[in-house]
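BUG-837 | component: ligand-complex export | severity: low

The export step for adenosine-5'-diphosphate jobs runs without errors, but we want the raw record kept on the ticket for reference. Input record follows.
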Amino acid sequence: MDGDTPPHARDIQSVRTALGTSFDGLSDEEARRRLERYGKNILEEEEISRFRIFIKQFQDFLIYILMAAAVIALLAADFKDFVVIVALILVNGLIGYWQELKAESSIRALKKLTESRVSVVREGEIRQVPSPEIVHGDVVLLAEGDIVTADIRLYESYGLAVDEATMTGESVPVSKDHQAVLDPGAQPYELANSLLSGTTVVRGSGRGFVVRTGRDTYLAGIAARAQEASPESPFTRAIRDFSMRYAVLIMIILVLVGTVAFLQGRELVGIAYLLVAQLVSAVPAGLPLVVTLVMVVGALALSRKQTLTRHLPSVETLGSATVIASDKTGTITEGRLAVQDDVALDSRALMLAAALCNDAREGTGDPIDVALSRWVGEYGELRERHPRTWVFPFDTAMKLMATANEVDGRRRFFIKGAFEELAKRAENRDDLAALEERLNAMAEGGLRVLAFGAGDWQGEDPDAWRYEIVGLVGFLDPPKDGVRESVITARKAGIRVLMITGDYPLTARAIAGEVAIWKEGESVLTGGEIESMDDDALYAALATATVLARVIPEHKYRVVRVLQDRGEIVAVSGDGVNDVPALKAADLGIAMGSGTEAAKSVAKMVILDNNLRVIVDAIENGRVIVDNVRKVIYYLLSTSISEVVLISTSIFAGFPLPLVPIQILWINLVTDGVQDKMFPFIKEEGDVMRRPPKPPARQFFERRQITRILIFGLVMGMASFLVFEHLIFRFPYETANAIIFTAFAAFQWSNGIQAQKEHEPFFVNIRRSLTINPLIFLSVLIGLVLQLAAIYIVPSWFNAVPLAPEQWGYVALLAVVAFAVVETIKWVEYLADRAAG
Ligand code: ADP
Ligand code: MG
């Protein structure tokens, strides 16, 4: 924008001309032109170039070591090895490059799905435009719950208030007024007639011109800290840390092996070369990337089930959720209400209150209001005849709304809301007891009941309101299909389901009972009770409570915190601005697709189909994802350890090398290298929702996992050593070595096939064993073809000799033994589990 005076200190007409726009917005053509010319409304171009991704594949500690190995091979005048190693480095790099590109583009596609949208006026029409496409001069419409994504000069505002905590750290809402006159030098936090990018509308509505976008906004100036989390998640970082520690452990073992080998008088260059090859294949360098892929594939699967992931690592958190705290209306129930019953003390007044204290327009609006507008016969006429002069909008904390209307020349006051709230000020106290009895009868039947009041206008102040309760109306809001089954599934899976609602306790309990959330013996906690308890008492009460009624958003936030402080992993659903604190605090904030931008922006996930069933399904998916990560970790580590055991034992026993360096590197490619790519596609094992949740810290390395890895590594390392020992006395070294070379790859393949299922032995439910991931068989086939090519077409490259048919018997033997070892471990665990029930 030209000129020196900033937009907040100019009158709106001059801002408009300077921006070259109008109150009807820009034309599509002009918006496109500006977007091209001035760039997207984002803080930073996050696209990483393909070249950088390619180069990254070679910036890895283990690749450096491999390069060192290539140099050693040259020194040892082993030219063939040099070529093969360089080829392996390149192949590895290309696979990694291709994998990462795929992951990147999937992550970008996922981001696109959850991109925030902004209401703008273009060509005189209201449009929803992705926030990055906003340009200066755009006319933006703002309403409660919207996120401001560019700097805006207002020219209309109605009771507008904004949360500027991201800019000022102050979370008290700040009022905005388009008419405010400001000094050119006003500070960002003094701009009453402007909205700054990064803030949230908490109340009211407004309109304005976009004056600055992207890197020109105030937010960009202080953006470093407001930046999105780096693409490397805490979780992948944890995996990386683990790989590092594991690498150190392996190095210590290898140094020991190297020392022994040296003392035995083996050739120095040969030893160095062997150790390097072993290190490269024993450390699962590809693990962080494979884990990311498992999560990306999982997140894509979730998106097909109406669940969008805004934060990738949360798919893994999903798997360990222990509590679901769900909204009632709309998530558990249909949210499409219909009047079912009523109690009228004064029918005409009740009709007037229902029609006038109401915001429904042409069948849209708050479901309660819509239901009432359908129920009152002459809704339209009543509203036209009795114009509204004042309104107190619905307030979640007071649970009521009120209006003033002209009725037959008099100014009348109408109110509707929660019975207890209305009863506090009602003048017809004698009727209350009888009304409450009727209310409870309706509520016990699962109806949501509202009370209505009417009186003469006394003033705006709630303390001045005068009215009598004139009747009750009961609404039917039936539970959604599938919710009951999902609640039962969740309970079996050890997940507690809490219903959190602003509704009346009896109503909430009746509905909760219908969907199996509440059972005889469990309690209902009210907002009032929550307020009177300290954190410990609250946590204790939550042990038996499944329904939280008459709860306001602050209570919801507190419940989430108290549960989390005591180690629970909480999934919370919400949609409004006032759900933001709870959604933010929760391990897993889940916003509704229909909810506000503010809720979506802090949520880790967004569900498009608002239904508790979708949340439970997502948890099920999350558990499968966690299982798959655990399975790939098992596979990579168990095969590595068997290799380390074989080589170390052979050296300690003073034997010749069972595998030469180039073979070790090759095996790594035809086993891990091909098969770990298939682990993201393992389907669910069948018992995911019949196990209790695992705490996040123990998801990947619990006792069983470690035991399995060690047993497999030790037993198979020793078994292959014994076979080698046997072969070396019967065959020339070259043949013995070539047999072990192929057998080693083969038994890892059978381990890979076994690793697809971890809770069920292969021979229990064979059908599932074969169908849980057909891709694993494909990858074994690829590995086999490569191995056959290596030993029959270019054996000399690998120091190998072609195998005679009967020598394949040894290969088969080790493959079967490996299969049997895992099968035995599984049976022992399986039977132990069954015995334990
Ligand atoms: P829920 O958790 O079911 O969404 P709400 O917070 O929407 O509950 O509503 C809480 C209570 O506030 C309701 O039980 C009702 O008494 C009152 N209430 C809800 N909507 C309105 C409305 N539009 N007008 C007046 N009162 C309302
Ligand atoms: Mg509600």
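Assignee comment: Attached the raw record above. DSSP finds 30 helices and 21 strands in the chain.
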